Amino acid sequence: MNFARLRRSAARIQLADFDTQELEECVKALLRLDRAWLPERAGHCMYIRPFMFSSDRALGVSPSKATTLSVILSPVGPYFKSGVDAVRLFLDTSNVRAWPGGVGQFKIGGNYAPTVTPQSAAKQRHDCSQVVYALPQGPDPNDALISECGAMNMVFVFRRFIASHAGVQAGSPGIEVVTPPLDGTILPGVTRDSILQLLKGRPDVLVS
Q1: Angle at 106 between CA 104 and CA 109, to 5 degrees
Q2: Which residues contact 201 (CB under 8 A, 6 or more apart)?
Q3: What is the pLDDT along the chain (208 residues), one digit of tens a residue?
Q4: Which string of DSSP letters, residue by residue, matches the chain?
Q5: Separation between Cα atoms, residue 87 and residue 31, nearest integer Å
Q6: CB of 136 closer than 8 Å to CB of 95
Q7: From CA 104, how far away is CA 98, in angstroms rounded?
Q8: Which strands sit side by side in the sheet containing 205-207, from one edge to the other?
Q9: How far apart are CA 123 and CA 129, in angstroms?
Q10: Residue 79 in contact with residue 122, Cβ under 8 Å?
């Protein structure tokens, strides 16, 4: 799924196509080569990052005639300094990560660079580790819809309290999981999809 998303993203900005199965085999070979670097400590892992860029011998805004596809590996610890503990989030109603019709659904650098300043401001002013972006629906910021976080998709978990007179059948889900739809402004995260697929198999959870 990661490689398929990379391929879609490359096509969106006119980079060369590639075979996802071949790339997967290349990554496996690289992991075997660097297996001594695989971390064994709890909470640590090997970060795998394939990336692509135009390596055309020219300057200009035009489709690339040459593309470089590379993969880097790096042993890493927890993403946040707090480890697996909860992190503080800042809801930003002034900055927008992605607009309808843009490239929010693609894994490209243009979606990340503009979030550096808002994230730094959230850390300095509010001691928050990440920014949650809202998509305006009009002049009133209270009407904005939750979009996604700077480094992750957003998922909300609600406990459902159903009145006894509501006429709901016995055994109805007691938990509802809500996440913004993939409307073109949301990056289709692999973790997001994995969680939703697992939850859809649970009768006690309603996925919205």
Answers
A1: 85
A2: none
A3: 889 999 999 999 999 999 999 999 999 999 999 999 999 888 889 999 999 999 999 888 889 999 999 999 999 988 766 666 778 999 998 899 888 999 999 999 888 888 999 999 999 999 998 999 998 888 887 888 998 888 788 999 998 776 555 555 555 678 899 999 999 999 999 889 999 999 988 888 999 8
A4: -HHHHHHHHHHHTTPPP--HHHHHHHHHHHHHHTGGG---STT-EEEEEEEEEE--SS-SSS--S-EEEEEEEEEE--SSTTTTS---EEEESS--S--TTSSTTS--GGGTGGGHHHHHHHHHHH--SEEEEEE--SS-GGGPEEEEESSS---EEEE----TTS-PPTT--SEEEE----SSSS---HHHHHHHHHHTT-TTEEE-
A5: 31
A6: no
A7: 5
A8: 156-159, 175-178, 205-207
A9: 6
A10: no
Tokens of residue 136, six digits: 């305006």
Residue the block writes with tokens 């064994």: 40
